[in-house]
Amino acid sequence: MEILTAEQAESLTGLVLGGLQNEWQTTRKVILAIPAEKASYRPDEKSRSAMELAWHIAASEVWFLEGVLAGEWPKEAGMPEEVRTPADIVTWYERTAPGLIEKIRALPGAVLAETMDFFGLFRASRALFLHMDWLHVVHHRGQLSTYLRPMGAKVPSIYGPSGDQEMPPAGESAG
Fold it and tell me: How far apart are CA 129 and CA 161, in angstroms?
């Protein structure tokens, strides 16, 4: 992986953290669109259930944030007992992630440029691992969004109106 200067790492981190926060608003809508009574839906026996995938999205993002903050990868945490519905996942994430994001935002560029080992597979800067987190979230959110219609749910807007929404009049936001 590419080695970043402190200035590059700081700049990339600011961009990525802003992107993660924006993407979370979209991911939140997708998770909340899962009908709680159908959260066990899986399109194939090899697939995660909608609930498992939603948890993976939120928990792995927190895992990435904690790892970048600590400079080493933490042990993966299981789903807390109080998390039983998609809405509970969103509540857990919203209680957990923002503080981590702010702590990372406060790290100096030299720390963000430090490299970390990814389980012996490769090394990259802390800032680049944040970018990997962003890509990971978007990837799995795309998977989860394809579960919604087969569960009888509506797909919310992601990067514009979905097929389940009418186009807004000119000059208005699709939300």
Answer: 30
pLDDT digits (tens, 9 = 90+) for 76-102: 888 999 999 999 999 999 999 999 999
The count of other CB atoms within 10 Å of the CB of residue 72 is: 10
0.85 exceeded by pTM: yes
Distance of CA 167 to the CA centre of its chain: 27
Q: Which domain holds residue 141?
A: 6-73+80-151
In terms of Cα–Cα distance, which of 63, 137, 65 is closest to 100? 65
CA distance 72 to 126: 9
d(CA 118, CA 97) in angstroms, rounded, equals 21
Let me know if residue 13 belongs to a domain: yes
Strands 123-125 and 115-117: antiparallel
Q: How far apart are CA 170 and CA 84, in angstroms?
A: 40
- Give the domain CATH number at 147: 1.20.120.450
175 located within any domain:
no
Residue 159, domain member (yes or no): no
Q: What is the pLDDT of residues 56-80, one digit of tens each?
A: 999 999 999 999 999 999 988 889 9
Looking at the 3D structure of the chain, how many domains does it have?
A: 1
pLDDT digits (tens, 9 = 90+) for 25-40: 999 999 999 999 999 9
